[in-house]
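Chapter summary example: a protein plus fructose -6-phosphate.
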Amino acid sequence: MCGIVGVVGSREAAPLLFDALRRLEYRGYDSAGIATLLNGHIERRRAEGKLDRLGEVLERRPLPGVTGIGHTRWATHGAPTEGNAHPHGTDRVSVVHNGIIENHAELRAELEECGQVFSTETDTETVAQLVDLNLKLGMAPREAAHACLKRLNGAYALAMIFAGQPELMIGARHGAPLAVGFGEDEMFLGSDSLALAPLTRRIAYLRDGDWAVVSRSGAEMFDAAGEPVPCEIRQSALPGGAIGKDGYRHYMEKELHEHPLVIGQTLQRMIDPATRRVVLPELPFDLRTVPRITVTACGSAFYAGMIGRWWLESEARIPVDADVASELRYREPPLAQGGLGLLISQSGETADTLAALRSLRAGGQHVLSVLNVAESTMARESDLVLDTVAGPEICVASTKAFTAQLSVLACLAIATGRARGTLTEAREEELVQALLDLPGRAAELFALQPAIRDAAAVVAEARDVLYLGRGAHFPVALEGALKLKEITYIHAEAYAAGEMKHGPIALIDRTVPVVASAPSGRLFDKTASNLQEARARGGRLLLFTDPAGAARMERVAEQLIVLPEAHAFTAPILHSIAVQMLAYEVALLKGTDVDQPRNLAKSVTVE
Ligand code: F6R
């Protein structure tokens, strides 16, 4: 969260910075700001709210200068006001920051004691004030910055510029990502290579704890002790062009329509078309002997992991533990030596998941990550990455990345089952066929739009909604409820269908719709009984099912959304898309900001 960018160059900086901020807006949109050096003086423009507001300010009061820094904010410390918008600083230094300075209160007290005057409520200002004090004490900029970094606790990616130093920018990272971009007679810093993609493909990633002194002609990198470290430049593969909505109303609508393609592309990477078998890259561990898998992730990615657990346990008969990353790390579960840590993340930068990755590694686990951003910190720290081929996901709420994660996890479960001898060849063939059928089935879902719209009209009226599912469809219910909360601000809870009678049933009346995901099959009768219980108490039942399920529940459900028939193995993937579509239709009725819902950011780089 929070996007930072910087440039030392020979062209006007503000338009470059603004364009890069547009590509970073997914990291937060509470406020935005840019500072440049103008005749040696620091000038800045800031605005509360979305980036467009800053655009208006810059139009009224342009900001010349060839060296500058920019920021798009997801507020942590201090309200999302213009006053708290980055860049922060003094006449001498200007700073943008992504992360949290955990010892900001004690630093602030100390700096105030020394006469530094603060003007914001942010943790970031302590960095600017500390560098400013060091400069006042006679230190050169790089010395002042290094001395400051030594005092900081917490997570940061920082970029700083200095008055009277048009050829200098300093960047630093600890726990939050920072990329250095190498241009022709210009240099860049950015939270990720996507932000820098239109400017340069030549990227070096700072290692954790390192910092960089950037000039127009290059960068020197140092470790925390100030010793020079090598700078490894890579070629980024990310697209530099603008990512448009292609005629859709929202990125979410576009990304929902990309499900069939994304699932197909992801499966293509993992299934050999000639043999129709799942093929994994060479593994640095042996799936036959891994004693246990620990799945961890956050939010939707965690729900994908829960479905993955179901598949791994049922098809490969391997013990799997699953916990959200922010809990796993502190729970300190006993880990079997040589076990496998399975991390799932769209961005590859989520701070909680990254911290869990590191603690799993410290606990002697192999690290396998399912990631959508190949050039991410988690990718660099994993033993093996299985790519989701979802392409850039712009809507803050995840949709296509989620089904791509499920596609990878399904293949992993098949490969693990084969390796461990729990899958017969016939079963493998059956499951692979079910996967290969998925893109076609997913495309058929768009024909359900009228039925989903009818269901959306019921949900849009509600203050609270209950989502139910059983087995691999419980995480589908969680995903549906999360998506609804995120983009419509309607309160929703998801329960394992069998749990409803143990408490949440007390909530049910005519005003609380019950949304259930229940295809026919082994668990259907049990779930159907739970739904009858809800109906008997006046609950309005909206049921996602298949033709056989619909025939059974015709009289019970107020609205039936009948998905195409699918194998039980892949049904959770189709149902996930359908519940995401429901949330989108409700958001349209509510008129909310679908792509950038309030209070959220896409890449959550603080713990
Ligand atoms: C929900 C959503 C979030 C993310 C979560 C993890 O729509 O997008 O819950 O799934 O923040 O993010 P990644 O996958 O980037 O680690």
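Key point: DSSP finds 19 helices and 27 strands in the chain.
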